[in-house]
């Protein structure tokens, strides 16, 4: 029987009336009231932000994408065997270029449905079409919304055994409280014995990490990506941010093993945000936080995920033990 064409095998489902892509006003307001003011990571991933992040992954100093791709090239067949599932959902799927390696290995073993979750509808459509054009028999159902909405959809649409993937070291882009809340949602979504595959960047100190998370000479991908958060606030909420009033940078905090993406104020700032009913104040030299990237050690990650009812089943590290893929199994199976 002939396999349906790529367009027939791709659909994108909005998960709320506004597609859940317009940020929750309460969440953004609460983040901006923190000290220092903070913007949630998903705010930066409109079509422009997604394209800018793809530029980041191509920077010569940004090792994460290359190391993770190499791990998947070497181990995707083994991972596919261990997942033993007919459905793979991915949180923050983006372009899914690396995920293609895993999906290809899964398809060699069984029919596979891919359920990417992302706030950028255009990216879901284009990545789904590209995957289906390259991989016969793959079916893609894009879930347009934030992680929580996608996981809720999965809970209300049971089916073949499910694995949830969280690649790109994105698990570290949140506070401990936010990670715990998300792990609770993932635990509620997976049935006993089902798998959670997560990648994590491992701590390697200030010099290596600040080199990785700042633009090398002649590039501006990180700077443009961080400043796009202010453009989003201006567009969505009528804010009055002037991009030239802020210096994009990344700094490593050894106490928390975290790289912080920052927008440092060149002068005292008092910026009205009418759509949220507040004014954001940033003194000269202080900053807005536009991203965390927590760096783990293997045991700490295992303990953090394990506290939510998971057991570590397997892990794969790069030769320098700088980065890893970790496969957890939901307890009770």
UniProtKB/TrEMBL annotation:
Span of domain Histidine-specific methyltransferase SAM-dependent = 28-329
Superkingdom of origin organism: Bacteria
Entry keyword Transferase: yes
GO BP annotations, alphabetical order:
methylation
Q: Which UniProt keywords apply?
A: Methyltransferase, Transferase
MF terms from GO for this chain are: methyltransferase activity
Q: Which residues form a coiled coil?
A: none
The UniProt entry, under InterPro entries, shows: EgtD_Methyltrsf_superfamily, MeTrfase_dom, MeTrfase_EgtD-like, SAM-dependent_MTases_sf
What is this protein's name?
Answer: Histidine-specific methyltransferase SAM-dependent domain-containing protein
């Amino acid at each position: 029987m002939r396999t349906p064409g790529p367009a027939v095998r791709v659909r994108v489902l909005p998960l709320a009336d506004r597609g859940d892509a317009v940020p929750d006003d309460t969440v953004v307001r609460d983040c901006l009231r923190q000290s220092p003011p903070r913007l949630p990571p998903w705010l930066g991933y409109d079509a422009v932000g997604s394209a800018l992040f793809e530029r980041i992954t191509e920077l010569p100093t940004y090792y994460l994408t290359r190391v993770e791709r190499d791990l998947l090239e070497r181990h995707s067949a083994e991972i596919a065997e261990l997942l033993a599932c007919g459905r793979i959902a991915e949180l923050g799927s983006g372009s899914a270029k690396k995920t293609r390696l895993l999906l290809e290995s899964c398809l060699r073993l069984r029919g596979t449905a891919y359920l990417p979750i992302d706030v950028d509808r255009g990216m879901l459509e284009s990545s789904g079409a590209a995957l289906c054009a390259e991989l016969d028999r793959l079916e893609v159902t894009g879930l347009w919304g934030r992680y929580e909405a996608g996981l809720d959809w999965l809970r209300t649409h049971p089916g073949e055994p499910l694995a949830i993937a969280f690649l790109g070291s994105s698990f570290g882009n949140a506070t401990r409280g936010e990670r715990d809340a998300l792990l609770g949602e993932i635990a509620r979504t997976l049935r006993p014995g089902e798998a959670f595959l997560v990648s994590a960047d491992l701590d390697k100190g200030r010099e290596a990490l600040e080199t990785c998370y700042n633009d090398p000479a002649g590039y501006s991908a990180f700077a443009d990506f961080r400043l796009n958060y202010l453009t989003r606030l201006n567009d969505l909420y009528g804010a009055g941010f002037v991009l030239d009033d802020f210096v994009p940078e990344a700094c490593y905090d050894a106490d928390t093993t975290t790289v912080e993406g920052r927008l440092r104020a060149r002068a005292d700032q008092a910026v009205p945000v009418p759509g949220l009913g507040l004014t954001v104040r940033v003194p000269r030299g202080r900053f807005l936080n536009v991203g965390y990237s927590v760096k783990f050690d293997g045991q700490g990650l295992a303990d953090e995920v394990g506290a939510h009812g998971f057991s570590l089943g397997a892990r794969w590290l790069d030769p320098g033990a700088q980065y890893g893929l970790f496969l957890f199994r939901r307890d009770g199976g």
